Amino acid sequence: MVLAFLAEAGDELVSGEAMSDKLGLSRAAVWKHVDALRAQGYRIDAIPARGYRLMGVPDRLGELELRPLINTHEIGHALHWFSEVGSTNDVARALAEEGAAHGEVVIAESQTAGRGRRGRAWISPPGRNIYLSVILRPDLPPARAPELTLLSSVALCQAVRHAGVPADIKWPNDLMVHGRKVAGVLTEMAAEVDQVQWVVLGVGINVNARAEDFPPELRGSATSLCLERGQSVPRALLASAVLGALEEWLDRHAAEGFGPVRAAWKEMSETLGREVRVRSPGHDVEGVAEDVDEIGALIVRTRAGRERVLAGDVESPRPRSPV
Ligand code: BTN
Fold first, then answer.
1. Which atom of ligand 1 is nearest to the CA of 86?
2. Ligand 1 pocket, Cβ-based, cut-off 6 angstroms
3. Bigger pLDDT: 94 or 3?
4. Are 54 and 42 a contacting pair, CB within 8 Å?
5. What percent of the chain has pLDDT over 70?
6. Could you tell me how far CA 190 lies from the centroid of its own chain?
7. Contact yes or no for 281/311 (Cβ under 8 A)
8. What is the value of pTM for the model shown?
9. How confident is the model at residue 89 (pLDDT cuts 50, 70, 90)?
10. Cross-sheet strand order for the sheet of 196-205
11. How far apart are the first and last CA of the chain?
């Protein structure tokens, strides 16, 4: 609890008094907790008469590090942790088929068969990045499932920006920093005709990967938060922030629909206003990306008129044109 409290305060100092009031602990008990955390490798500043501040957490992503940081009602309450899996999405799909509950999370230190969108591989070296899959059971018809994909990229972008890295979103859900990809989401689902049974949101974030962790052909287009920020990022803090942001946006989506998600996505988008070529199954669409519609499709103004694209990869031959 002390750790979750400090983590939530971010850079702010938290007074010992506030913590003991909120957590129902004596000031001496708070101090003992802080001491125990320091012994586990957490760096905590204690400034006399002002309070405590979390300065660094050990870069491990186990249940022990993650559990105290998770401050959600549902997302991540059940946590399935693995040192190595084929793909966290495959594990999550199997769990969902066996009846796993909304919000269960599968997380791994490494993947031997990490999967990206459109049949691509996802580079998953051990101990550096985040690979997690969240099982959702939304009350939605299958046609509205793409909304969750855009929602997840908004949550991801919010958490990464909060970690001090200026990310934006390339349609539909690639997270970009300075034009290179740092994270992606692979959404998979099972549905009846009129109701989604389960959705698995598979999130991969290149957190502390070094250039040599990427194969040479990806080095120009992929990057990591550490490479962009010039400083490593504690994975457990980021993973818990992603789960927290995801829960916030899911709650908002359930209460208010897709409108606020769409507005946030547009604000975070690097795609809108740009000349694009969208490589989509069957054919390519070229023009200016104008909008995302009420189900998350990309609206492209082409020479022939407007086209609505439901799936594909965006390439931007030229920088954003002034509007
Ligand atoms: C993309 O192509 O942009 C999507 C990448 C998604 C990668 C994540 S890593 C965790 C989860 N397990 C997988 O096999 N893939 C997703």
1. 14
2. 87-89, 111, 114-117, 120, 122, 131-133, 174, 184-186, 202-204
3. 94
4. yes
5. 98
6. 21
7. yes
8. 0.86
9. very high
10. 79-85, 105-111, 130-136, 196-205, 180-191, 174-177, 167-170
11. 49
